[in-house]
Amino acid sequence: MKYQDRHWAFTLIELLVVIAIIAILxxxxxxxxxxxxxxxxxTSCLSNMKxxxxxxxxxxxxxxxxxxxxxxxxxxxQAQPCAFTFLAAVEPYVKNRQIYQCPSEPKAxxxxxxxxxxxxPGGECGGxxxxxxxFNYALTNIGVAVASIEYPTETAVASDGNLAAQQxxxxxxxxxxxxxxxxxxxVNACYADGHAKTFTAKLSGxxxxxxxxxxxxxxxITSGAYTRWCNxxxxxxxxxxxxxxxxxxxxxxxxxxxxx
Length: 260
Description:
By secondary structure, this protein is α+β, with helices and mostly antiparallel strands. It has 4 helices and 11 strands, in the order H-E-E-H-E-H-E-E-H-E-E-E-E-E-E. The chain has one domain. The protein has helices spanning 12-62, 86-94, 111-117, 137-140, and strands spanning 71-75, 81-85, 109-110, 130-131, 133-135, 156-160, 186-191, 196-209, 215-221, 246-250, 253-257. The mean pLDDT is 89.
């Protein structure tokens, strides 16, 4: 008896079922992989914050227990007016400019170009270009003394952030310093005792522009001392987008105020 070879093949319906299963698995797994990659970038960014916190404390120990100024007018080697910034002040303790760049957004803002566009031909005195982090300008605008900070573990020095341009959108003024929750709604920050940790923020729905003219999203801080001002009753309409001020406590818990 002769047997004929039988050739098996998928039917069109079977192929479509397989393709559908693959598509469903991809839709489930790709976001998981993306979040895992972002978590790795967040860990690297938090390490940057820790190094910035450590370098700030080293500066403080060498300069009468005071933090460096955010920026002040100076001159470069060509006698051009330039801005000497916090970044340049702590650089001797860092020796690696890459720590100023978050791996999730390494070119968030160009500091040197921004100061040149504002009329300083020398730009940033140290020639700092790309940066991803912002500072607590209530602390660095006056070079506050460490001893005057009541809660250094809750008073921020720097964080994931950007600098705003003068505009009506999001009620920002020039050099306002909105945080940026680049890591799945998480912001990394370093504090006035040198340690680094995270807090959360959510999109407000408003988009403005930064000092280089790039789009800049607004995030509302949702955890920690910077969610509201002191004596401001907590509520869903409160949206603070800056780490600006000094941590305090009032009848509702953690809050911030403008002076130590």
